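Annex B.
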Amino acid sequence: MVRKKVDDRVRTLIENGVQSRHRSLLVLVGDHGKDQVVNLHYILSRTQVKARPSVLWCYKKELGFSTHRKKRMRQIKRNVQRGLHDPDKDDPFDLFISSTNIRWCYYKETHRILGQTFGMCVLQDFEALTPNLLARTVETVEGGGLVVLLLQSVTSLRQLYTMAMDVHARFRTEAHGDVLARFNERFILSLADCRTCLVLDDELNVLPISTKSRALVAGPGVDQGAIGAAEAALSDLKESVAEMQPLGALVSLARTVDQAKAVISFLEAVQDKALRTTVSLTASRGRGKSAAVGLCLAGAVAFGYSNIFVTAPSPENLETVFDFVKRGLVALKYQEHLDFEVVQAGHHRQGPQGGLDARATVRISVFRQHRQVIQYIAPHEHEKLSQAELVAVDEAAAIPLPLVKRLLGPYLVFLSSTVTGYEGTGRSLSLKLVAQLREQQGRAMAGMRKLKEVTLETPIRYAAGDPIERWLYAVLCLDAQISKHRIVSSLPPASACQLYQVDRDALFSYHKVSEAFLQRVMALYTAAHYKNQPNDLQLLSDAPAHRLFVLLGPPGSSSSPDALPDVLCVIQVALEGRISQASVQASLARGHRASGDLIPWTMSQQFQDADFAKLSGARVVRIATHPDAQRLGYGTRALTLLLEHYAGKMSPAPAVAVEVSDGAPREGSEGEDEAEEGEVKSKKSQLRDERLRPRQELPPLLVPLDKLKGRERLHWVGSSFGLTESLLNFWARAGMRLVYLRQTANDLTGEHTAIMLRALSTEGLEGEAVAGDWLAAFAEDTLRRLVSLLSFEFREQLGTALDLAILNNVREGLAPPGPPITAKQLGYLLIPRDLERLHLYARNLADYHLITDLLPTLARVYFLRMLPASVHLSRLMEAILVGLGLRHRTVDQLARELGIEGDQILALFNKIVRKIGASMKEIGGQQEVAGVSAVSGKGMTHGPSKAPKKDQASVESRKNKGAAELNGSHAEKKRKLLEEERGEPPALLSIDPAQERSRDKEKKKKKKDTTAVHAQTKSPSVEHDVISAVEFKKGTSPVVSPKKKDKKQKKHKKDSD
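RNA cytidine acetyltransferase: predicted structure tokens.
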């Protein structure tokens, strides 16, 4: 084997990193890069004065070699027989695999390595790498370690600009299939600005892109005798608590002042033993959160806590926590096997080294004084916490927010979360859950949880000022904070602001101006409580269907003339639709949905409509307003201009000059010419001579909407979001109507996904004409579904006020109501006895529970607009009808939710029944009275008549004649009474004594008139129903006393004889 001297800059970089505890990044270009990993690991292990560094090796599917020892031995034997291997010499790569602690991990399983630390990280299969995976793996490397990125052989690094990444398959849609890999170009160009990064070929030759390596010199050695200010402060803190046990023993294990103060804060809460207390620990990656939690759990054991539970996304995430629990117990003079024992459990792990080797600590049992246990539970096993005294949630940012809320209870809770890492819910947890706890603490309400917040700033895994951390946070926009981009100038009026489209080629060109503008945009996303993750950055840069718009003030409104304009609002839009009918029908038949086009595919599946997918539309992915300019109309203004733009309305805007290109060529810009001359050079020489620089010829960064080439006219604009009342009201103000509400809640936020649409004017739009009001048809279907579904999945998740807001929003998008329900249709819903029960309740002559079964029908009839338009309820009455009739709440539950007394709810509900009942009476008319009489006649027979057959016909004719005359006069009286009742309904809660006396006199007079009428009709079956109908409308009781009833029956019998 030919030996070759390695470039001194490689060794110098590694040695400087070990001395300063900073990480280094090495990019190996070539197919034999894995063979150089052995040499780099050898240099690293010789430089570090400790055990051989552990290695994390991540890959997509195939490693390209076997990690199984027996398989490798069989392969070596075959190579020896073929003469391809010398048995007297050991293969360095085989020795590396057999003698090094290597964790082989699929990219899809990298979530299992949270909280773990490695000395070296190897990333292969560049096409499968995503920003999430990059941040997740790089942050596990300790200070002085190496991050090695393996790239395939290329003749030019520019080939990586257009490399097809695996994630690009999800970005393509049927209408937008051309993907531009802008993120790769920006990523490769950013490597030149990282001073601890070297780009090498597979022979460890430094490539010209590593411009920072020219100034790479050996750093001065670390003076072990000099103690910095931070170390001196830590020593003073440890000495101050050295006599306070167990606090002193645990603080002595802290590595930084921040971590020591965090341990003290945790142990103060443990010592107080106050229930319903939450201690929140937030920090960036590598600050020692898990170690601090582990030390505090050991302190809880010393304070006598018996039932301690720890949870995390996976048991492997708690490796650091349980490790420091053991260290803390040892520092407190506990001995393993004598005072405590560690229990490990095996679990299935895929990969080359799965099976029995995959073991993780799940419990530590302490038995010095009494039984104490620190037990791991899965995040969804919150029902096991009934006897808990302390619950610690590590990596809470990676656990869905609804599960974290369920873990809170009447015990002490430790929350440890990352807020500036790759996690999508990290910011959501800190801004939503902690904000709620902070608000409850501010109100100082009885029974509310107490909150204590702790933050760690100083890194522990690596030294402060790590260049790799700075580079990673910059390239992935992980630390984009709105505090760095405050608006210092006066805010312009919203009407004077204009909307501009951002050219993504210029935005991701890696120029200094475009990078500053990109950080401002991502800072707005972070401040808007969005669930941000690094993958969103690649989606914005590479997805062909996405567009970016910003709302800016008029020219000259910025804080300084030369500064970038202040971004007041940013909107990210995804163009969707234009799917062929054949594709929709084929997908619906298979039950499969293609990637992208969220709204068209969802609507097609839910409504089984293949025509909607043919329409073109835009989905608002994100809209964020600057915190200094919120609630001033800027978001509404930006959305209005966007709707006008896609509707074809021209709105001229002044041009904003933002120069991205430098104009003058930089040093080494002749790389373009060299790339062309490289055709006659060898691949190695071209790669070693290539110099990469950002492009010089770029389009303007900000383009006014009226200057866009090929303006896009659309049929609709919509939005898909987690449903909250504030967001529903915002989109409703923009004229959007809800057409879909997902029945299952989102796993991360616990919110139900809603889709709202607004149809745009299609006048002059090219393409097929849109038939009819399609949005009203969808809204009608949605309304019928929601009225039935509010009592199912949405019953616990949504509130009554939000349910009412949803129904009102959907009803506003409907066409004008048609004719009301007919008497025949009403008979399918309510039988005459149901109407009689409603009438009794309306007059306070029946209990509420007598009509409970009719509440869903009443609510359905009202909200589906089956009643005449004259029937109108107030918002509070509608809320009560929603709560009782659609959500099936009890009166007490609804009273607590609405904040009013139960008696007031019943009084208002009585008015609701009276209004709806009167309308139903009006719809039924004479058919209702005849139906009630017929039913009552069947139910109140007194046996066969004893009259002769020849007289029975005359009796029946007299009955029919009298009933007809009575019905005629009664219908006229009924009409007048209904008009009086609709004009001024009687009071329910207060009765005037004078009115009561006059009402009694009127009752007596009505009874005499009624008795005379029945003497003429001589019909006992008609008698009861006529009295009920007349007296109900006149305000008297329909109940007839038994004595009077007997007298009337005897008189009727005598007349018949």
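The mean pLDDT is 79. The first strand starts at residue 24 and ends at 29. Further annotation is deferred to the next reporting cycle.
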